[in-house]
UniProtKB/TrEMBL annotation:
Keyword Cell membrane annotated: no
Pfam families: Integrase_1, Phage_int_SAM_2
Protein name (database record): Integrase
Keywords on record: DNA recombination
GO molecular function (one): DNA binding
Native source species: Roseibium aggregatum
GO annotation terms (biological process): DNA integration; DNA recombination
Record-linked InterPro entries: DNA_brk_join_enz, Integrase-like_cat_sf, Integrase_catalytic_putative, Putative_integrase_N
């Protein structure tokens, strides 16, 4: 193993960010990047030696090899993590536009779903019921809802989500803006105490299996739609109008002040969902610009 690979492996081993699967996938991806850099003649002594020219060389190599834009975007996520770990959070631009990648997650229809009472009634496991409620009320992913520990996260006016609960090891804050959110947290706390919805005597994978089985039996598909619904609710709360996915206006129909408000709201929603990029919000909220104005976007 060369010096860069050893350094990256050590960096990954010391970090507890993300689930076991996320950490393993990230490590494999970064070690493959180390081999790509070596093949291109870059012999970095350690992970801290990464520079912008190395990023550009990697992206160029991947695109020349014919990798899909989605695959390149995933690898850029690992590179952003690498930069953050070595104290270079600005190593990569915040968006992928610089690299000439196609738009991520183009809007393909409104996938938002409301969590209705009849669906919940068909779920017999109360822990799974509460996990679904957390997804709908806070935009959590299923893994986050199961691993979430309210006694640790609840700071009164917001939830501080630990990196180890979140996809990609990205911690974040989710504000409490509605009384129903507080009532739900109290309900979860009453059941789990200082624990999580995984429950004692089970690990995450066992809890996930139970979650999946319960949803199949209840006839619930695409629970991720509850997260979409949260995003749309928060957007309307922040702007005062519905998002394009729910019939609201696109930016080309807004005043400059409204367009600024739209952008700020989308960035807020993106951060609360655990992304942090503007382009991601098209998937949840609908395109910012009408299709005929895409070039202007």
């Amino acid at each position: 193993m060369d010096e860069l690979s050893f350094s990256l492996k050590t960096l990954c081993t010391r970090s507890g960010e993300g689930s076991f699967g996320t950490r393993a996938l990230r490590q494999r991806g970064l070690l493959a990047m180390a081999q790509d850099l070596k093949a291109m003649g870059y012999r970095l002594p350690d992970a801290w030696s990464i520079r912008g020219k190395h990023i550009n060389a990697l992206v160029s190599r991947w695109k020349t090899a014919g990798l899909s834009d989605q695959t390149v975007r995933n690898r850029l996520t690992w590179l952003r993590w690498w930069g953050y770990q070595v104290g270079k959070p600005g190593l990569l631009p915040k968006t992928n536009d610089t690299f000439g990648l196609a738009e991520r997650g183009r809007f393909s229809g409104n996938k938002a779903k409301r969590l209705e009472g009849p669906a919940l009634d068909r779920v017999t496991d109360r822990r799974v019921q509460l996990a679904l409620k957390l997804e709908a009320a806070f935009g959590m992913r299923r893994e986050e809802a199961l691993k979430f520990r309210p006694q640790l996260a609840d700071k009164g006016d917001c939830l501080v989500m630990k990196a180890s609960w979140c996809k990609g090891g990205r911690s974040r804050e989710i504000p409490l803006t509605h009384p129903k959110q507080r009532a739900l947290l109290d309900e979860v706390k009453a059941l789990v105490g200082d624990g999580s919805l995984i429950g004692q005597g089970r690990n995450y994978y066992q809890a996930l299996k139970s979650y999946e089985n319960q949803l199949v039996k209840a006839g619930i598909s695409n629970a991720h739609g509850y997260r979409h619904a949260y995003a749309q609710w928060r957007y309307k709360q922040l702007t005062g109008w519905s998002c394009p996915a729910a019939g609201g206006p696109t930016v080309d129909r807004m005043t400059p002040a409204e367009a600024d408000r739209d952008r700020d709201a989308r960035m807020t929603v993106s951060h609360e969902l655990g992304h942090g990029r503007l382009d991601v919000t098209d998937t949840y909220l609908g395109r910012r610009f009408a299709p005929r104005n895409r070039e202007a976007a």
